[in-house]
Amino acid sequence: MKKFVLTFVLFVPLVLFAQENSISEMKKAVVCTACHGQEGNSANPEWPNIAGQHPKYFIKQLRDMKDSELRDAPTMKALVATLNEQDMDDLAVYYAKMPLAQGSTPPKFLNRGEQIYRGGDFAKRIAACIACHGPKGTGNAQAGFPVLSGQHAAYTVLQLNAFKDGKRKNDLNHIMQDISSRMSQDDMEAVAHYIEGLH
């Protein structure tokens, strides 16, 4: 009986602490839901799904949006200006727990999209996406490579063009700037639609 009471006494505060943390994270996420939805998946295809994203990558993007030299995102810059490091950590953990979106790939994009994603294009010196983002688009949490699986094709195309045009410069060793510079719009559309249906 004493063991039960002791276990109960020790366990209840942990549960309450976890609940308090969850409520705190939810309150901080209220502003995010306007664009990214209650479950981290946006209704507008030009805004990203953020559910299931790796915390390390998520936090880096928020930090970089504060610095317009690294990532030009005026709307987000105004919003993240009010966030401190703890806020960013809490939001990253909150959204990382949410399930990934599951989209589909239109048949006309399947062959070229799969070719670029899985094998790249040797003639155009386009590296395969799979090398960093994995066979199912789940990225690499430790390396800070993002989850792409289920991401809106329109948003992915916007980001590839941002890398290509120099509006976004926060990629590791300029990898994405280099790859996107070798891609045509058709290449971008194909691989973006392939990624949306990848899961």
TrEMBL record:
Keyword Signal attached: yes
Residues bound to heme c 2: 129, 132-133, 176
Post-translational modification: Binds 2 heme c groups covalently per subunit.
Location in the cell: Periplasm
Residue ranges crossing the lipid bilayer per the database entry: none
Stretches assigned to the Cytochrome c domain: 18-99, 108-199
Protein known as: Cytochrome c4
Organism: Legionella tucsonensis
